[in-house]
Design the sequence.
């Protein structure tokens, strides 16, 4: 599926003195969701790193629509935006009780771990992903 | 000054297993820079919160151009984008040895702490900020 | 039950450049476990805070026996040590594939939120907890 | 010097909804202090890692005596406890306006990065450290 959702319960340490979830915490929720998406596809982010490809974030956009709070049960939806080239683009929607609280997107770059040069999306991922867009 | 810079030395806990600064860490560097900017203006973020106004982030954009590493000495420049209304917009440039590694911007919303409704930028801040744009 | 376990999957952001889970991350796992313990008892940490009692940590001890890694599925066991007075003492054991990787304990203090003075464990918690020790 | 101090200004993201510095934040302050101590000795933690020795934490103890708050200027003092063997033991005292707010200690283990086996403190560190105890 292009779409995948995970549940995240807000941790106490993820709040700040405003009494809300700190805006930086959602960045980590996005990360957890896209790693789960990769895993759900039958692939392993860890294995990809061991094979010499890293996937650093090159762009991050977040819109904070509503606050969330400690102990809230969030649903983080991640969707692959397009067939990956040397970039992997995801869109995110975070809901709290069916209300959208945060949206965002990230661009990740496939890089050779040794040279730090861009590489194309590995074939084993393309094989899994391409059918999702047909 | 519309512009203000702080120095941040990358902490060990801010790295990840890629051996780079985790992308989420820069979000906290932006935050530290804008709070220092407010402080440099002769105002106090703490006092503003105590007076009943909170400033949550409503939009965040980050472009990651180059990696940074543990123990790097980063210079985080923050610039006020426009005269604040009910929003406060900042642009950021992070340099590592004179090379730009990350850029970004944030939109913050002035909110009444009790009602969570938007309010206008307080007069004591406008008085300090308006002359910077003339 | 005096004992309660939760599962935590290690997040990417919780690793450091050693390639291991950063030692500070376990402090947050302990916190998540004890809040789940309170919840499992039929109580709510949030409600307790709203009623004017806070529970800051006054002592923390951690022994790191084995490293854990990104994506590991940890089981965090938390056990109440004694009938609470003005303190709440928990012991923790974190296992990774049935192997103990981290142990620890924390002492929390019941404080009045306004005065910051110690208070006794609230009766509604004592009623739930006391039978566990008989 | 066996003793070394750094200044840390509390970041907003290091607070929690109690309105205090989150107890986990101090673990990172300790880390920053001991790395600065190594640096002040004329050594580099980064170089040591590149040479194949890692220094994971094996024990951590923290006593929280007083709360600290956002924007506080903390002084983190770190002291080497004894001549290192295969372990490096530090004691910490954190002050806020000359008042001790947190104390603690950590035991770090010198490990071979490849084998994860304990190794002795490298000679270049012993040469620097031994005179401090005479």
Sequence:
């Amino acid at each position: 599926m292009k779409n995948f959702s995970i549940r995240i319960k807000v941790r106490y340490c993820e709040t700040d003195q405003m009494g809300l979830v700190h805006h930086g915490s959602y960045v980590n929720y996005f990360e957890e969701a896209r790693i789960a998406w990769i895993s759900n596809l039958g692939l392993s982010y860890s294995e990809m790193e061991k094979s010499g490809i890293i996937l650093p974030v090159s762009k991050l956009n977040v819109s904070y629509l509503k606050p969330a709070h400690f102990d809230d049960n969030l649903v983080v939806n991640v969707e692959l935006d397009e067939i990956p080239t040397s970039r992997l683009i995801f869109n995110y929607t975070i809901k709290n009780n069916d209300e959208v609280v945060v949206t965002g997107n990230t661009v990740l770059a496939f890089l050779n771990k040794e040279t730090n040069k861009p590489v194309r999306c590995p074939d084993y991922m393309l094989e899994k992903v391409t059918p999702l867009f047909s």
Summary: The beta strands of chain B are 3-9, 53-54, 57-64, 73-80, 87-96, 99-109, 111-112. Chain B has a mean pLDDT of 96.
